[in-house]
Design goal:
single chain, mainly beta, OB fold (Dihydrolipoamide Acetyltransferase, E2P), 5-stranded mixed beta barrel, 15% helix, 44% strand, globular
Length: 149
């Protein structure tokens, strides 16, 4: 994994990259207006090519990224704990396909997002309603882990 910080035109970008330079997690901080990839579709698409990016780019330590990530999720922790209680492992749920990330398909549930790593049919489009089963919890992204039913 690589972790980068970019300052471009007053906006900060914090990005976790895998070995293929695909973004896995991202924070955009525009003067305190924060978007975080586990809540909004703000993840860089495709391979991030550092030599083609604008702004001041720094390679940062994992711990620096993790601190920013945890701070960005701080106000969501109480809601996350509540939602885990509502979405018990083994429970059937229905959600809508929201978008695709390298980790899987992001599914919008009631008040929370889930991630489904199952191979989905190529015919599925954003907005498709899916029936799933809760199989666990992604404590890093505050996602409900799902499998197709």
């Amino acid at each position: 994994m690589k972790y980068i910080y970019i300052m471009c035109e007053g906006t900060e970008y914090w990005i976790e990259l895998d070995n293929d330079n695909q973004a896995l997690r991202q924070i955009i901080d525009d003067n305190g207006d924060i978007e975080i990839s586990c809540k909004t579709d703000c993840l860089a698409e495709g391979a991030v090519l550092l030599d083609e990016l604008d702004g001041n780019i720094e390679i940062i330590e994992k711990e620096v990224f993790e601190t920013k990530w945890k701070d960005s999720l701080l106000d969501m922790r109480k809601e996350w704990e509540q939602k885990k209680g509502e979405y018990r492992v083994g429970s059937p749920v229905i959600g809508n396909l929201k978008y695709f990330y390298p980790q899987g398909a992001v599914i919008q549930l009631e008040g929370i997002q889930g991630i489904c790593t199952d191979k989905l049919p190529s015919s599925l489009v954003v907005g498709t309603q899916l029936q799933c089963i809760v199989t666990g919890y992604d404590e890093v992204n505050f996602w409900i882990i799902l499998t197709l039913r």
